């Protein structure tokens, strides 16, 4: 009996170094491993390790359920409006210790933060920021959502020349090759962007010309969405049955050229307490999906040194890239997350702030979205 307990302890430690898929495979080996892997402490360790967050005070579901919800690739459009979605780029996990957060469309914050009791719609229209209260505390997951493109139409796409015909796909190219080449020359679209529904050879002529090769970018569709949700959201019955819906907090229309599309979520406590901005509890890194080169190394060095915190997210020069770098970037710390995309010449942006509450208007905020549309 003592040896069996010893073996269980050894395998419990081994399991701490396995990811979710390997844990599932180990549990299928035999009944003994299945019982071992069913221990919730193993999944708790794996979940906190992979999200790089401290344990919350309380969770309403098992850690195995939370791990699956966080890492099985699920996103908001898995449960509704699937036709409006292409893919999600996960950023990572962050923690809210208090129920008040600042939502912003820019990373240069006003000297005086909006009052929690103020009108969020008015502060969004005036400053592009608002304070959201009664937010559910605990672990949150952040990502960017790539919206689906509608079938080609001149109303939904803006066409511009980018290179000579010599670099264009031939007239006999398959739709897949045409789409891949177009995507290559369209920095505003994520690499994972799939062709819109119904994209066939009949549509290829829209991005071909005898003299020029054209590229496109979203004109009237959503270009960038920062999506954040409580780790338990997808397990809640109210969300799964559709009774919880997103509500508009406010809309800010910027009718002038915009250099960037930015969205950020910050825990108010760490914006108003300077001593916490760089303490040894800070946790800072660039999402591996978005970082590369010197910025990624700089973020890794900052994380290793234990500095940065919320202030690290606001240090925009260290991570948003050069103006000619149009790839989306994201920065994450323990109590904040932000995304940024440098834009090509445009006529302005419309920024929408949305929140989902549990159990009606007085419920806790369980999901937040900040989305930008090109005007």
Automatic annotation (TrEMBL):
<dbReference type="Pfam" id="PF12937">
    <property type="entry name" value="F-box-like"/>
</dbReference>
<dbReference type="InterPro" id="IPR001810">
    <property type="entry name" value="F-box_dom"/>
</dbReference>
<protein>
    <submittedName>
        <fullName>Probable F-box protein At3g61730</fullName>
    </submittedName>
</protein>
<dbReference type="GO" id="GO:0005634">
    <property type="term" value="C:nucleus"/>
</dbReference>
<dbReference type="GO" id="GO:0061458">
    <property type="term" value="P:reproductive system development"/>
</dbReference>
<feature type="domain" description="F-box">
    <location>
        <begin position="10"/>
        <end position="49"/>
    </location>
</feature>
<dbReference type="InterPro" id="IPR036047">
    <property type="entry name" value="F-box-like_dom_sf"/>
</dbReference>
